[in-house]
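Repro:
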Amino acid sequence: AFLSQFRPSTDALGRAIVSVTSDSTLDDIVKIEAQANSLLPKAFATFTFRPSEPSSLILTTSASSLSFNSEDVPVTAVVKDAQGNPVKDGTHVNFTTTLGIITELVPTHQGIAEAKFTPNMQAGLATITATAGETTDSLTLTVQPGSAGTIEVSLVTPKVIGISGSGVVQSARLEFLVKDNRGNPVADDTAVQFSLGQTTLGG
């Protein structure tokens, strides 16, 4: 804590006035003592400095993209009060995710709460949200799938096409679904090769 002055003089009413300001970002108890000349006993005043409620929260992580089989990734919430000070220790921060698993409740220490996120073998976009009091923040992590493990036909339309000159539609749309070994759709731009097998027409 700071005192505005250490040797104030009394005014016409016999008052010696000083101001005290906190320089701490944590809960703090400060005792002020005053003594006139060598007068005993001294006078004491005690102040408790305490951060206010959460006013801002910033959520960060060390990576924006990771593999579906990655180990735990830290997700950090920095929580401050309206004066820009870290909130008091033990302030609860709730974490949620739309994919994978994350530590749900983490208390702050010096204004910081760190949760652990794991994809849990799931691929896709994970939206992670942290909330402390009335303040919240979110970020998105891209969880990449594994390499191609299976391919299957997902659509054939129409299933019957005409021969040349028949007047019937002569083309069809085919769609194939490519997944990794965990059943996740593979990453965009995965190459798929096609070939036309032998065709036999009979009548």
